[in-house]
Each structure stands twice: as C-alpha cells, then as structure tokens.
Amino acid sequence: MVILLLRSPEWTPYATVIRLANGFLSAGVRVTVFVMDDAVLGLIPIHGRGQESYPLFPVLAAGGELVVCQSTAEIRGAGPGSLPPEIRFETQVQLGHLAGSADLFLPFTG
After folding, report:
1. Rounded to an integer, what distance in angstroms lies between the CA atom of residue 3 and that of residue 52?
2. I want to staple 35 with a disulfide (CB 3.0 to 4.6 A). Which of 39, 41, 47, 48 is the partner?
3. This prediction's pTM
4. Could you tell me which residues come within 8 angstroms of residue 64 by beta carbon, excluding any fewer than 6 positions away?
5. Hey, what domains does the chain have and what are their CATH numbers?
C-alpha cells in the first residue's frame, strides 16, 4: 500500500492518515507513506522534544516506510542531513513507480 500525503500536519485529516497507516501496519500490510509539499513538515521534529517527536514517527515506529520527495523537501529546509536516516529521499518519478506497483494507492491531497 502506498499513501500519498501533501498537506501540512495542521490539516485535520493528517492525524487520520497516520492512524490509518498504523492500522494497516498492525494488520500486517506493508505501508509506504510518500510525503511531499507541505506534508514534509511532518518529518521535522518538534523543537526541543528530540528526534522522535516528528508527527510521522509513529508510522516508522510501527514498521512503515517513509519516503519524501527530495525537490519539495529541500525548498522547505528538510535536506538529507536534517532528517532521520530511516527516511528515504526519492523523486516524483519514483512516486509514479510506487503507485503503479502498489496493490492500493491512497492519495490524500486535500
């Protein structure tokens, strides 16, 4: 399963997407969350709370995969050196490949 998330963590459905991903993970489904645009902000730790405080951390902790669009992350100040090493940087072309090969593709674009 691939979930595409475009909106910022302040967007009400953002937390719902995290719970949805964790629900599928607990059922044994392989989940990849691809974040781009303002959703990238969900990979940045909350100031003063440590590296594991970023909003999307529960997905990673439950065994999910987090992938970020490199071009939209870098313009938001989230380059490879500023994010946890478990987060993979990819391109929008790779998103197309992921979506095309997934059993289920869920875009949350707002």
Report:
1. 21
2. 39
3. 0.90
4. 21, 22, 25, 31, 32, 33
5. 2-108 (3.40.1260.10)
